[in-house]
Amino acid sequence: MPSNTALRRITSEDFFMDDGVTTVSKSRRPEPEITFDKFWSHYNVAPEQKWQVEVLKHLVKYAALSPGWDSYVGVPLRLDAGFFALSLLNDIMRPRTPMPQVVPSPVGGVQLEWHEKNIDLELHIAAPYECELWFEDHRTGERVSRELSNDFSSLAAPIAQLTSR
Predict the structure, then answer these.
(1) What is the helix (H) or strand (E) element at residue 59, kind and residue range?
(2) What's the confidence (pLDDT) of residue 69?
């Protein structure tokens, strides 16, 4: 070996894997490009659930109604019914589910309604765990009408149909 040639020590930084083959390179291992595209696509959805803001506005307004608001004996929305409605919506709504119409009920409850895409879906919440479901799919003729108290799984199919159309 000639004396004027410098010896260079090869370190682990000189090796990197490329398609499963170990390669010697004069440059360091290429740094992977870090991007946050996927993160930002989820993060920049503002607000995360627009329907939550809109539904909450309606619930607050209906809770402030004065007794007899319907020119009969209608009572304002009970807070427990309003909170239950919001909680139930949080469980059943999907990212593309249309926002329901929110209508006060004279018994202190609230009615959530969807009338679109050839589907009529109504959920009357009189109090927590005191609900009535009415669903009709005008394309298939399917109809569902039932009281709901502790099992709300029968809402899954109507919400899925409403969301997927």
Answers:
(1) helix 50-63
(2) 94
Quote the pLDDT of residue 95. Answer: 86
**Separation CA 127–CA 115 (nearest Å):** 23
Q: Look-up: residue for tokens 């307004």? A: 61
- Amino acid identity at 49: Q
Backbone angles phi, psi at 49, to 5 degrees: -130, 95
Classify 148 as helix, strand or coil: strand
Under DSSP, is residue 108 helix (H, G, I), strand (E, B) or coil? coil
Q: Are strands 143-148 and 21-24 parallel, antiparallel or unpaired?
A: unpaired
Q: Model confidence over 106-124: pLDDT tens digits?
A: 999 999 999 999 999 999 9
Tell me which residue of 77, 62, 69, 155 sits closest to 114, measured CA to CA: 155
- Burial class of residue 156 (count of CB atoms within 10 Å of its CB; 0-12, 13-18, 19+): exposed
As given in the structure block, the two tokens for residue 10 are 């090869």
**Can you spell out the DSSP letters for 130-142?**
EEEEEEEETTT--
Below-50 pLDDT ranges, the chain: 47
As beta bridge partners, residue 21 has 18
- pTM of the entire structure? 0.69
